[in-house]
Amino acid sequence: MSAQPEQLAREKQLAADAALRWVRDGMVLGLGSGSTAACFIVALGKAVREQGLRVQGTATSRASEKLALEAGIPLLEPRRGLRFDLTVDGADELDAHLRLVKGGGGALLREKVLATASDYLLIVADSSKAVAQLGRFPLPLEVVPFALPWVLDAVAALGGAPVLRMSKEAPAEPVKSDQENLLVDCHFEVIAEPEQLVAQLQNIPGIVEQGLFLGLARAAVVAKGESVQVLRPGRPAAAAGSFGELP
Ligand SMILES: O=C[C@H](O)[C@H](O)[C@H](O)COP(=O)(O)O
């Protein structure tokens, strides 16, 4: 039976709180997007305000930037040479190799930029995100508006049943990313060969970024019920309390 929304909310909080163990004084952090990353930003802000933790960060979305400012976390603008000791971010799906599907909240481009500029990407997730095989969650793409018709044709030819993401508040309007691009959700159902799919998507002009994150995550903190596990690519899960190597 799948977990109830209240249980998943509790698991997000547990994973986010556990992720604080990766943070060290003086770190430069990438701040992820979505509801689980939001729990982390709030918890981090509390540590900054109440325990004098000194960190700086850059956010992967306007929403996370606003949240971080409200939480009292000093923010850094993008600049040449800026790297992150640690980025903490959520995921829509993760497998045993810590291959990820991201972008359910539309922040995949900035998320991939920061993940790539980070020495350590830590994923925080509730139990619903850990899957045996990627693909049930529709794969998000960020697409330049002019290229949309051809991108839809090309993704359909790959078997991805593309759907333009529409606004929930204004159903006639497409969702725009922070870069004013469109978002397309591709229903593959099963992504058997993620590396091959990435290569195919990278060949389609007009796709600014796609939501498969391969070889980027170093660890994932996944909460299930009241227990928290740490997953590392291809290695057995470690229980909370034996967090193993830190960044
Ligand atoms: O674009 C959004 C991000 O990739 C999120 O990290 C992802 O959608 C997971 O979000 P949530 O923690 O709300 O499930």
Automatic annotation (TrEMBL):
UniProt family annotation: Belongs to the ribose 5-phosphate isomerase family.
Stated name of the protein: Ribose-5-phosphate isomerase A
Reactions this protein catalyses: aldehydo-D-ribose 5-phosphate = D-ribulose 5-phosphate
Binding of substrate, residues: 33-36, 89-92, 102-105, 129
Source organism of this protein record: Hymenobacter armeniacus
Described function: Catalyzes the reversible conversion of ribose-5-phosphate to ribulose 5-phosphate.
MF GO annotations: ribose-5-phosphate isomerase activity
Keywords annotated in UniProt: Isomerase
Taxonomic path: Bacteria, Pseudomonadati, Bacteroidota, Cytophagia, Cytophagales
Domain of life assignment: Bacteria
Active site: 111
Catalytic activity, EC: 5.3.1.6
